Amino acid sequence: MADAAVIWITVAQTSALMPESVTAIRQDGLDLAIYRVGEAFYASDNICPHAYNGRLSRGFLEGGTIECPLHGAVFEIKTGRAIDGPYCADLKTFPVRVVGDEIQVEVDPADVIGPA
Ligand code: FES
Questions:
Q1: What's this model's pTM, rounded to 2 decimal places?
Q2: What is the pLDDT of residues 91-107, one digit of tens each?
């Protein structure tokens, strides 16, 4: 049975992301970073939890980590765990699934603006 407390939204086509890349998706009031590592896709908040002004989509993706371009906080993109750099909270991550060629992210409907 589906969980009524969450919804899946399509954020991009798989072909839109090159391997080992990160891109920003602003949609439905969300500001997300979408990652492709090999054939796997991940999603997180795009705003760094350190000072709330670093955009992770402009950061440095290496293996399974993203480094914020502002002060160098490093997060595991799979879990969001802060693993290096200045002390800060973990990064919020979102479940991702691929349906056909669509990358879909699971979100709380309360976080979505507009029809979803
Ligand atoms: S804003 Fe990202 S490390 Fe400071």
A1: 0.92
A2: 999 999 999 999 999 99
